[in-house]
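From the pipeline queue, job 12 of 40. The input is one protein chain; the requested action is below.

Action: predict structure.
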Amino acid sequence: MNTKTKAALVDACLDYIRAEELPAPLPANASDYAPWRERVADMPEPDEEAEEAWFELDRMVAAQPDDAWAIICELATRCRTDGEHATLAAGPLTTFLRVHGAAFAARIEEELGRNAGLRNTYRWLNRIDP
């Protein structure tokens, strides 16, 4: 995967993650739910390119794990909120670890040591700290 293609995929995946993030804070009681639901209903849907990029990353996890790992690491670096990190952890990172965790164990450990964004994303897996 060339640099330009990778950058475009990362940007589009971030667009998807950000479009899917629910407004905070989540409602704590029934009286807070109705106004919160209205805010959610007014949120724009992710555009088709962003959605396709997100599903392309999922396909890459299965077929191109080296490229997928590089994308996941870059996404983790560029996530800005806990919600974005949690979305990345719950989706591509979880799938990647389940399918390729053993084979990539040394690379994962190395990246966790140097990539604060990945550490933040990783902690959302079962809410644990690496």
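Job complete. Residues 3-122 form one domain.
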